[in-house]
Write a structure and sequence with these properties.
five-stranded mixed β-sheet, single chain, globular, alpha+beta
């Protein structure tokens, strides 16, 4: 199962900082999260989703040792 880590507002909306997920691809993961947690789903299109530290397309496979980071947009000043 892939390890998914949430940061800032994504963590608040997910209700957890980290969890293990069994979806096979990034797209499947994002679809499942949007269905299970509509509040999180609302911000996912604006989030950076990194797979093992790199932005990855939706068809990227997720393996047992994969780390997915969900980072919402950060405001700068």
């Amino acid at each position: 199962m892939a390890r998914v880590r949430y940061f800032a507002a994504a963590e608040d909306l997910a209700g957890t900082a980290e969890e293990s997920r069994g979806e096979a691809t990034v797209a499947a993961l994002l679809a499942a999260l949007s269905t299970e947690r509509p509040g999180l789903g609302a911000i996912l299109p604006r989030c950076a989703v990194l797979v093992d530290g790199s932005r990855s397309p939706g068809d990227t496979p997720l393996a047992a040792d994969t780390v997915v980071d969900v980072l919402p947009p950060f405001a700068g000043g």
